[in-house]
Specification:
Rossmann fold, 15 helices, 2 domains, single chain, 41% helix, alpha/beta, 403 residues, 8-stranded mixed beta sheet
Length: 403
């Protein structure tokens, strides 16, 4: 008899966010081996619209959607209201659907989700596995939303430590995150590193001269530095704008920002107020265009604010590898991102609080076309050998079968 597997996430197909994409793909692939079900939110902002909350079947997966508020998440009050409504909705759906012995994988976003799902698992005697995308409350401290010595911060840390020790297993995305979580665990045997993966079939290196996005933007003759993905509070866009100001006099260097998030409005205002002619901004591009999008540059940048060591691993890194692009990693030197860049020799590591170093690195990159080519080739090889979907799904299966 097939084991019952449940994936619980606010975001799921057809949502095109990183979380929605990864959880949908995990569900599809594991659906070949288990009776796979999903409890998720009802995303009114999706490209695809849903007019019903009736159970659905998608590629053999049973989907149970939970209605909630879908207010502007970039406004903190609205984000909190969304968090409360989706958490309560998913909790009651979980209570009604889970059975004894079921295997449940729940993600950490929104913050309250794993708490309510772990309670539902405890009540229904189901196995609960926590998939950590972001470490709370540490991320909130790093972004300045909480102070370390606040009472609410200490309370959140206390209940989070309790959650980590209560769930049956924990999945983390990298070695730096593992170190953070290990300090909070009584039993170290319950933690497992399973990274995200590169979409090797849909994303691959393409010749720059044929890139339609570069032609459309009329920057095919520029040296393009690209930031593509979420523009959230944890991402260091400030240092990139600082670098673009310092490099404005070098005509051949152009910055391309693609995406949205809490800092998008700030980014637009900054570009306008400084009158930056060497910066182009685009909205999020459809996932179907991701190959063309990620190839529309000479070097990719992934940038974090200071203090993010071990708190988040950028999923965008793996598809950048698949596109065969070198990476400038603006991050702590011990982060998972830095470890990959250094071990694979596919780019540069820049301190998040050193804009001068970033400027020097970009200039160095423009002068070393052969080095860029070799780094790009090594990026694709790393994606194929270490971060393929088959490798990652096998890691999930091994965890499920052995617990």
């Amino acid at each position: 008899m097939l084991k019952n597997l449940w994936i619980v996430s606010e975001y799921f197909y057809p949502d095109e966010s990183a979380t929605g994409y990864y959880l949908t793909t995990i569900s599809e692939k594991l659906g070949k081996y288990y009776n796979t079900n999903v409890i998720c939110g009802w995303n009114k902002n999706s490209i695809h619209k849903f007019n019903s909350l009736s159970p659905e079947v998608f590629n053999g997966i049973n989907i149970y959607r939970c209605k909630s508020t879908v207010l502007n998440k970039n406004v903190l009050l609205f984000r909190f209201i969304n968090l409360v409504t989706i958490s309560f909705s998913i909790f009651f759906k979980s209570i009604s659907k889970l059975k004894s012995g079921d295997y449940v994988i729940v993600v950490t976003n929104p913050l309250s989700l794993p708490f309510v799902v772990s309670i539902a698992c405890w009540l229904k005697k189901a196995n609960c596995v926590l998939l950590i995308h972001d470490v709370y409350p540490n991320v909130l401290i790093a972004t300045g939303l909480l102070k370390k010595d606040w009472l609410i911060t200490r309370f959140l840390n206390w209940i989070t430590v309790g959650l980590y020790n209560r769930v049956d297993n924990i999945i983390v995305l990298g070695h730096d995150m593992e170190k953070i979580i290990l300090n909070k665990l009584v039993s170290h045997t319950k933690i497992h590193i399973i990274t995200n993966w590169a979409d090797l079939k849909e994303i691959f290196p393409c010749q720059r001269k044929t890139n339609s996005l570069l032609k459309k933007m009329d920057i095919q003759d520029k040296f393009v530095v690209q930031y593509s993905g979420n523009m959230g509070r944890t991402h260091g866009l400030e240092i990139l704008i600082d670098a673009s100001k310092k490099l404005e006099e070098i005509d051949k260097i152009h910055f391309l920002f693609i995406g949205t998030g809490a800092k998008r409005n700030w980014l637009e205002r900054s570009v306008k107020s400084y009158g930056l002619k060497n910066v182009a901004l685009l909205p999020p591009q459809p996932r179907s265009n991701l190959c063309d999008t990620l190839n529309a540059c000479d070097v990719a940048i992934i940038s974090f604010i200071p203090g993010m060591l071990g708190l988040s691993v950028p999923s965008r890194m793996y598809n950048i590898l698949a596109a065969g692009k070198p990476i400038i990693a603006v991050t702590d030197s011990d982060s998972e991102l830095a470890i990959v860049v250094r071990e694979e020799n596919i780019g540069w590591i820049v301190s998040p609080d050193n804009p001068e170093q970033l400027v020097a690195t970009i200039i160095e990159a423009t002068r070393n076309s052969e080095t860029l080519k070799e780094m790009g080739e090594r990026s694709r090889i790393a994606a194929e050998n270490k971060y393929s979907l088959d490798v990652i799904i096998n890691a999930y299966r091994n965890l499920i079968e052995n617990t």
